[in-house]
Here is the input.
Amino acid sequence: MDNFGTTDNGKTAGIISYFTIIGWLIAYFGFYQNNKTSLGSYQLRQTLLLHLVSMILRYGLAFILGTIWLTTGIFSLFYLLRVVELVFFVFWIIGLIGAINGEKKPIPFLGEPAQTIFSTI
Here is the structure.
């Protein structure tokens, strides 16, 4: 078990980081801090931006659309939020498959900007 940190290429941290922001924190502090790899860095940057943008859009749109729905009664705006959540779920699946395969495969629209924005990770 002592060799776990030295033989892991960052794949474990990458996979764990996809499971909520708590998973990202566990991956960063539990796996990545003592075993910094380029694959681990790549996946952690990517998932951090995915989690942040997902939360901002999910809660921001829910607030905005909820307000519009209450004032206008247009219930169909609810479906817009579901479409956004579906898009982020697809992005999550694409990224997770890349992490499982040990690839540096960017998530559409977010993968490349994440590498620049969080270049210090």
